[in-house]
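Hey,
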Amino acid sequence: MRFLCVLLCCVTGCLALPASGQQDAGVVTQATGADAQAGGAVTQADGMLSGSVTDADGDLVPNAKVTLIDNASRQRRSAVTDEDGRFRFSGVESGRFTLGIVAKGLEPSSSQATLQEGQALELPPIALKVATANTDVEVTLTREEMAEEDIRVEEKQRLGGVIPNFYVEYDWNAPPLTSKQKYKLAMRMVVDPANFVIVAGIAGLEQAGNSFSGFGQGASGYGKRVGAGFGDFSIGTILGGAVLPQMFHQDPRYFYKGTGTVRSRVLYALSTAVIARGDNGRWQPGYANVVGNFASGAISDLYYPAGSRNGGALIVENGLIGIASDGLGNLVQEFVLRKMTPGSRKAAASSP
């Protein structure tokens, strides 16, 4: 499936340019008082988040612990409300976040919201109920919530800001996708408008060169080529990105390494054509990707012109070519496409 994305980029000239348990990749910054600021300079793009904590009667609550978690990076910061029950976080990066509040004698509370770039967001007063028992809570995101945030980030990854590059994960410790999330990401890829434009352009080149001559010429021939091309792309994406990864419990994404020697990164990128990270976090034979390459070719043989079908030998040949192309595509992902994907987040420096 990743091969299809890379192949589309090649045609348009893009590649000619250069167990359960919560994982916490962040560092807790404890602040006393109303203002919790991250270390380092605050840029103009950073935002501010503030609010107040009250009890059920509307009285302000001082000394309440407020924890801010960046849903994308998992980094967390904490502050304590001042005597007026207020808190403030400065230098906050844009994106979705989780806010958790704990105060003595009151029920803990948490909520999620989104901060726009450079926004100064004042939250509505956060009211805490009286606790029925002594309770304490550690504000965390579930594995599914973290994976959902990963998808939100991946859906913003575009080559040159245009062409989808959704199937690359820059956080080495990213949690696995659920079955529902695998289908969600695959369908998001299939319906992206940029892919329709690319498929239409490829069909035009095929028509100009009279590829798959059995489709004929004119509007009818062009329509058939577009239909076949989009069928190839859709089947490959859904099979390789959702159906087979769900069946074999494997992650369809390419996990960017970004560290180590050039040789180690080259070997890693090439090997990911035949190995995959399982949903259990372990590396294993890449059944989903390998089977997907052969299955996609076999299915496409059903709707191409009879003169373009050469039976099982061609399916095997195309499957092997697909696997090799996946390795080369991942090699380009490792060394080139990161620089061309402005929507990608900073890679987590935790790969082996």
